[in-house]
Write a structure and sequence with these properties.
CATH topology: Ribosomal Protein L22, Chain A
Structural class: alpha+beta
Order of helices and strands: EHHHHEEHEE
Strand order of the largest sheet: 1-5-4
Number of strands: 5
Largest sheet: 3 strands, antiparallel
Radius of gyration: 15 Å
Shape: globular
Number of helices: 5
């Protein structure tokens, strides 16, 4: 059963501009990405694409949660990947609480990018009263 959906689109050039001006302890990067995500970005050949896709994914998950305004810090949503490359979203803190309140049991996530844009789609899955997804 679907408890929420979200999508987001970002220009990769926007992330390039942010990174061009960013310091190592940049407030935006610390507010939006976990230390593990920042470390992973640093290992990538093009950190801007990594950051843009992860930011779009976080925003899509945030929208699927249906949380108001700044109720969920983006660092409560960690974007990772399975060994197969399939993207994952791990929720903590306020993000996990909003998911539980909506009956959410799992986040399904799709991320893509090409040329100028990065996009993501998130679906918050919930069980029905009989425990079926």
């Amino acid at each position: 059963m679907v408890a929420g959906i979200g999508t987001d689109l970002i220009r990769i050039a926007r992330m390039r501009r942010i990174l061009a001006d960013a310091r190592e302890d940049d407030p935006f990067l610390r507010k939006a990405f976990t230390p593990e995500e920042r470390d992973e970005a640093a290992r990538r050949p093009d950190p801007a694409v990594y950051y843009a896709t992860r930011f779009a994914a976080k925003e899509a998950v945030f929208k699927a949660l249906g949380a108001p305004g700044d109720a969920v810090p983006l660092t409560d949503i960690r974007i990772g990947a399975e060994d197969t490359g399939r993207p994952t979203a791990t929720l903590a803190g306020a993000a996990a609480r909003y998911a539980r309140e909506r009956g959410g049991t799992r986040v399904h996530l799709s991320i893509t990018y090409e040329d100028e844009f990065a996009a993501a789609f998130a679906l918050l899955e919930a069980e029905d009263k009989e425990g079926r997804a």
